[in-house]
Design goal:
alpha+beta; rod-shaped; two-stranded antiparallel ribbon; 2 helices
Length: about 150
């Protein structure tokens, strides 16, 4: 009887360790991985929106030197009228807070390369999140088995 009580306490300690590992390590890691992936998806969406805008500007075939009149989203769907004096070039965020002035074709080429790179990053994060989810299931299965032994 004493041996059973000691074995039961050891199993309870194991259950507690697994629960702590699950709640303090695996679940926060999964949340952080998914949040990072979502940020990259937002960045991809911004680049694709820029690409669409550039293609729309190219389609207007404005004569060289003629300004472009447009509306700019200031945030939260508040728009202001804007005049772009030279719509033949755009400034593109290339990372680390640096912006580079590019022609439309250069910007589109950069955006395509950047989105491919970001897609690879999201694939890696998706694989990482899948591994973490598998580890969570494994720990949960182990907990069920340990708790089944306690009963």
């Amino acid at each position: 009887l004493l041996f059973q009580i000691m074995a039961s306490r050891e199993q309870e300690k194991k259950v507690l360790k697994f629960e702590i590992f699950l709640n303090e390590t695996l679940r926060p890691d999964l949340k952080a991985t998914l949040e990072e992936r979502d940020k990259i998806y937002e960045e991809i969406a911004e680049y694709l929106s820029l690409k669409n805008s550039i293609e729309a500007i190219k389609a207007t075939d404005l004569p060289q030197g003629q300004p472009l009149k447009t509306k700019v989203d200031l945030g939260c769907n508040f728009y202001a009228k804007a005049v772009v004096k030279n719509p033949q070039k755009v400034f593109v965020d290339v990372g680390l807070g640096f912006f580079v002035e590019l022609t439309h074709d250069e910007a589109i080429a950069f955006i395509e390369k950047k989105t491919k790179l970001l897609d690879k990053k999201t694939d890696k994060l998706t694989q990482a999140s899948t591994k973490i989810k598998a580890n969570i299931k494994l720990v949960l299965q182990g907990l069920r088995e340990l708790q089944g032994m306690l009963v």
